[in-house]
Amino acid sequence: MGSVRLYAAVAAGSFRRYATYRVATAAGVFTNTVFGLILVYTYLALWDERPQLGGYDQAQAVTYVWLGQALFATLALQGGGFEAELLERIRTGAVVIDLYRPADLQLWWFAADFGRSAFQLLGRGVIPFAFGTLVFPSALPADPLVWLRFLLALLLATLVSFGIRFLVALSGFWLLDGTGALRMLMVTGMFCTGMALPLNAFPEPLGGIVRALPWSAMLQMPADLLMGETGALGTYAFQAGWAVVLLLLGRMVQTAATRRVVVQGG
Amino acid sequence: MGEAREGSGVREGSGGAVVDAFIELDRVEKVFDVRRRTGFLRRERRQVRAVDGLSFTVARGEIVGYIGPNGAGKSTTIKMLTGILTPSGGRLRVAGIDPARERTRLAHRIGVVFGQRTTLWWDLPLIDSYRLAHRMYRIPDARYRENLDRLVELLDLESLLEVPVRQLSLGQRMRGDIAAALLHDPEVLYLDEPTIGLDVVSKARVREFLGELNTERGTTVLLTTHDLQDIERLCSRVMVIDHGRMMYDGPLAGLHEAGESERTLVVDLERELPPIEAGPAARVVRVEGPRQWLAFPASQSAAPLVARIAAEYPLVDLSVREPDIETVIGRMYADKETVVPGAGNS
């Protein structure tokens, strides 16, 4: 049980660490609100032209936008989590500290990223979401059980999100400079999570493909679960399936990386 | 894979009888594959021997200086001793454990301070890093509190505990890092450049603490440094490594002989004269007006030389300068560099 306490301490520390940057948090809340507004008006215009696009009505489209803004930082949909830090630590060689600790690299960074997610949800996600769904007509469930199911889906989404970004971070052991990998994470994130447009609204066959990719486990599926567009079990199975694949892959890459590690510098 | 070259480097005795070999290296090698782009799509593969047939033992409770120029293989050795890097060949044991195989188990028994990196949590108060170490090393509560109190007192950290690490000065941070490495009572402490960038007062403080740690708690210390004063103050034994090979292993005093170091006699004469002729052992290395500098072997007494000059020349004043370790080691490197083909990877 000792290790549970360790990783809990890592997560708690990470939470507090993000909490120390209040101005950054306030700026984030502001940015997400402004982006939300821009997207909402764009979507409203789009859904005026194409009612029921992707199976959503206008209220659902609006809700989707604010959910996206709330989860943007929480799930690091376009990056901005631990991965940039780990890449930098690999580049500078500071990763020796992480490798030398009597702790597991993947678990350590998951705990740290989970703490960050928790803070970002509370500190940065809740306000734009509350603001947006109060000001605009929205489609939120009244049943608390649905919210509970949604929270569980978010939990699984953190695993998938971490799984992808852990692989991106580990690429640093081979690439040494992670700028390109981060850029790709950002672009694929914007497109494949459905931050730009709900994946339901993508033309076929592109929509089918994108919805099968792990990115759809982060925003699209939890959103559909919250708005009653899809069932809980199917969502969880999809999320858990991708989480297992990505985390196992991460573990394999981690083993390979630490075996060939050439710690940079000094 | 590289062929096992016979380690032809100077392998001095292990510095005293092998009583309780806590750290043991037997012909340890570390070879890195370095790929270099030599043209479009063309790459050249080259092997760099960072550590080349290195053998030494460190007994429990020893405090050993481990020195060498940049790229000599010091940090690579430390990384192998912590299990981060796996040796390409040879045998390596710390407390009977093979570090690369049982890195996590070993980590509970060793402490590491990487001078240029920090194990501390950058954005959070110092105390948070210690609380994390408490969990990470599963230190029993009572022992954690006891150790923390002691380290806080010895390293004067009381007023810093609530300060975010990023706001600490380099010297404060280093003391914080040293405390973090010792909370779990490690049997051995590896210090990789612990005084780098510190001011004189901070350096003295760190040295004093390390000396006490070694004498009072019997902690084995392996100290990597560029600062030769660290060695002079703390270590009775020095290991010098270059190009991944042991160049010298023994007491500090013996280093001078190994480096064929020279002392300098500075002679002030009454007037400008041609270079002094004082026999085969001494030679004039510099003349500036009436002042002349003569170099002679450090192992030799200055008395006969002084007597001879006083008898034959119009002497006004003279002084003898001891060689500093830096030049001694520098000379040692200069000598060996011609023997060992370059393989540095700084």
Automatic annotation (TrEMBL), chain A:
<feature type="transmembrane region" description="Helical">
    <location>
        <begin position="146"/>
        <end position="168"/>
    </location>
</feature>
<keyword id="KW-0472">Membrane</keyword>
<keyword id="KW-1133">Transmembrane helix</keyword>
<feature type="transmembrane region" description="Helical">
    <location>
        <begin position="231"/>
        <end position="250"/>
    </location>
</feature>
<keyword id="KW-0812">Transmembrane</keyword>
<feature type="transmembrane region" description="Helical">
    <location>
        <begin position="64"/>
        <end position="82"/>
    </location>
</feature>
<dbReference type="InterPro" id="IPR010390">
    <property type="entry name" value="ABC-2_transporter-like"/>
</dbReference>
<protein>
    <submittedName>
        <fullName>ABC transporter permease</fullName>
    </submittedName>
</protein>
<feature type="transmembrane region" description="Helical">
    <location>
        <begin position="121"/>
        <end position="140"/>
    </location>
</feature>
<dbReference type="Pfam" id="PF06182">
    <property type="entry name" value="ABC2_membrane_6"/>
</dbReference>
<feature type="transmembrane region" description="Helical">
    <location>
        <begin position="21"/>
        <end position="44"/>
    </location>
</feature>
<feature type="transmembrane region" description="Helical">
    <location>
        <begin position="180"/>
        <end position="199"/>
    </location>
</feature>
